[in-house]
Design brief:
Blueprint (H helix, E strand, L loop, with lengths): L11 E5 L14 E4 L3 E9 L11 E6 L6 E13 L5 E9 L11 E5 L8 E4 L4 E3 L3 E8 L2 E13 L2 E6 L6 E2 L18
Antiparallel strand pairs: 1-2, 3-6, 4-5, 4-7, 5-6, 8-12, 9-10, 10-11, 10-13, 11-12
């Protein structure tokens, strides 16, 4: 009755550590307090992408136990050293928990936005063919015939791949039966 304990931040008492009647010496934790108005997610990113990460970048978060909900957060911290165990970089993403649906220790999937392009050409990786070990091609319809185009590929998003060179907007990409085509094969267009 004569002692007051104050928390350095607002929150909810989640767990009281000592039992009633136990001695609580100075410096020893006596309660776990959580504030769930903002959630901090820790994720590991491969060293391959370490040079493209920036504090303040956008992150898209999904949680398996909350289907249909996509949340947006921002990168608040990027570790300055790699983990020796798995060659990855620790990243912290902060997002608001407006509806209080997120709970500490939930497992989340995080997608970090590394770059935004408004006029990128994306095609399904299923229609891109690798030939001669170092050349990627697709076929487009031009004048009723199949025309082979050599591509320069960029980034990926899901099963879509960015085309940096080799296609332009308006090209009619052949997406069915392209596996057996050669340059100049007559084709008929069906939509």
């Amino acid at each position: 009755d004569r002692t007051q304990i104050r928390s350095p931040f607002d929150g909810i008492v989640d767990n009281i550590i000592p039992n009633v009647g136990e001695y609580a010496p100075p410096g020893v934790p006596i309660a776990r307090i959580v504030n769930t108005t903002k959630i901090k997610i820790q994720a590991e990113v491969s060293e391959l992408y370490s040079s493209t990460l920036l504090v303040g970048s956008q992150a898209i978060v999904t949680i398996d136990v909350l289907p249909g909900i996509t949340l947006k957060g921002t990168v608040a911290f990027i570790s300055s050293t790699l983990s020796v165990a798995n060659r990855s970089l620790m990243v912290e993403v902060v997002l608001p928990n407006m509806q209080q649906k997120l709970k500490p220790e939930m497992i989340a999937k995080v997608k970090l936005l590394r770059e935004t392009k408004s006029n990128a050409i994306l095609v399904s990786e299923n229609v891109v063919q690798l030939v001669d070990r170092d050349r990627t091609i697709v076929y487009v319809e031009s004048g009723g015939k199949a025309e082979e185009r050599t591509l320069k590929l960029g980034g990926r998003q899901g099963n879509m791949v960015e085309i940096l060179d080799g296609l332009k907007p308006g090209d009619r990409l052949i997406v069915t039966g392209f596996q057996k085509l050669v340059n100049g094969t007559p084709v008929s267009v069906s939509e």
